[in-house]
Amino acid sequence: NGDGQSSHSRKVSNSTKIPVGTIRLVPPPHPPHPTPGSHHQADALDVDGNGRKDSTTIHDGREAYIKLGRLAVIPEFRKAGISKLLIETALTFAKDNPYEMMPQRDPSKIEAMRVESDGGVGVDWKGLVLVHAQVGVQKVWKRYGFEYDEAMGTWDEEGIDHVGMWKRVDVEPGRRKSRPFSISSPPLMAS
């Protein structure tokens, strides 16, 4: 209208905000891969290495990888693209922040680990992603580019059969991005 005021009013939502889905991204290090046919407790650390499977068809047993898990969408919101949004958001975050996918240690310790590990093998995340997929939703992960690893077999995790699936994403190697901050100058003194 002619008085400089906008004739469009902002629409306000009266909807209630509720979480409808979740996914978890776990940076390295990880416990050993489950042994096929075993009962594997999710997130259990195998300090003795009893369930150790050093390499699989896709994972050489040394390369650092991130793990996605606990993908869940409440039934009323399934088939609405929420899983895709969650998976893509988690992978984008990881790709954009590869330094954050490394063990959180003192920088000098990280450098020492790189030297001791053939240039960062097992230390630097280079884009390898694992999911322990429930057999019943294996197709969902395949739709998003994850590949079934036959060598990992099938195992029971929390009463549900699972398989290992991998995906590699492109990661730009680089250093941690600095976060800007301002340093204010002390006030000038009048003489």
TrEMBL record:
Protein name: N-acetyltransferase domain-containing protein
Compositional bias (Polar residues): 1-17
Gene Ontology process terms (BP): UDP-N-acetylglucosamine biosynthetic process
Chain segments carrying region Disordered: 1-57
InterPro entries named among the record's database cross-references: Acyl_CoA_acyltransferase, GNAT_dom
Entry superkingdom: Eukaryota
Biased composition (Pro residues): 26-35
Domain N-acetyltransferase: 1-170
GO function terms (MF aspect): acyltransferase activity, transferring groups other than amino-acyl groups
